[in-house]
Design goal:
The complex is a heterodimer of chains A (about 90) and B (about 300). By secondary structure, chain A is mostly helical. Chain A contains 4 helices and no strands. The chains are: A mainly alpha (about 90), B alpha+beta (about 300).
Amino acid sequence: MIKFLKKEFKKHLLDYLLLFTAGIFFILSLNLFQGERFLEFIILLFFVSFYIIWGIYHHIIIDKFHLKIVLEYILIGFIFLFLLKIIILP
Amino acid sequence: MNFSRIKNFFHHLFIPKEDNNFRSKLLHFDFLTYYLLIALFFTFLFKKTPLYNILGYATDITIQKLYELTNSERQKYNLPPLNYNEKLASAAYQKALDMFAKNYWAHFGPNGETPWQFILNSGYQYEYAGENLAKNFLFSQNVVSAWMNSPTHRENILKKEYTDIGLAVVNGNLNGEPTTLVVQMFGKTQNALAINPVKTKPVIAEEKRPIIEQSNIKNKPAILAKKEEENKPKIISFFFNFNIFFLVLLMFTLILDFYFANKMGVLHLRLTGKNLAHLIFLGFIMIAIFIISKGSII
């Protein structure tokens, strides 16, 4: 499994680097605007949108693009958008 | 026989194999759609329900808990516990109401209102006084921890001169968004023998004031609000724990699915999203949940 992970990261280094960078910006922005609920929600919305776009882009690049895959990224992204919304903007 | 059935059932849910099309059942589209529907149901149910106004489920912050935690911090430094003072509580509550009414988040109001005015208007003649403020925290423990991590707020909590404390936790709308304000006011009454009370007024906490907001207490005395808040259902705690549980379950399933699919050599053959990417995304969401549970202090 470790072997696979290494291979996967090496093969798509730029893509994963992009995802990590976006994640770090997401966390830093949340820290910066801690307590500002509306802004926190907007930041979350941006990150979820980025994640879905990243998923589509990545699968186009690796030539495995399919509507089912897009739906999977949308579903996972939106599940947590709504679950966190309950906490951020009750 | 039964054990074998249970084992198969869990295998079907978590482990990719032929009868679940080599993808953990919990990660199938129908299941993901159910999760989304549940999330949507909760989101819109609580948006529409009057529970928010009646029960104030927005946070799990209670005056009682804040009071206990503050005194427990003082006890760690061998300082005497503070007495809960109704006048200071009323001042704290009025301060929170003023912030909502005039739409500001600061120790001083837009028209020059000072924390000391609220204290004096409540009938509390102070020799020493201080104020701590916090907003949009989810739990009492996080509020007190944030104050203790800030040198100026910490100084207020651990000031040996203070003898009394008043607290208010108020829900309202600040700058157009639902906000929970926590106001913590400290004080020590003037010595009865003091000759010139005006001169003894402390300027101390002017730079160090923290503010707290109170929720759902309306115009009742703060002491009554204290009892009322204790009875509130801890709905936000439920959702916080639910989010953590669901995140951990999904991450666990993704790891199992990833591990076994890789072992069976079917990882490249499946038409699914990347488990690794999902895990990275969920990891950041997990960190975000903990950041969101903390608000801001001044």
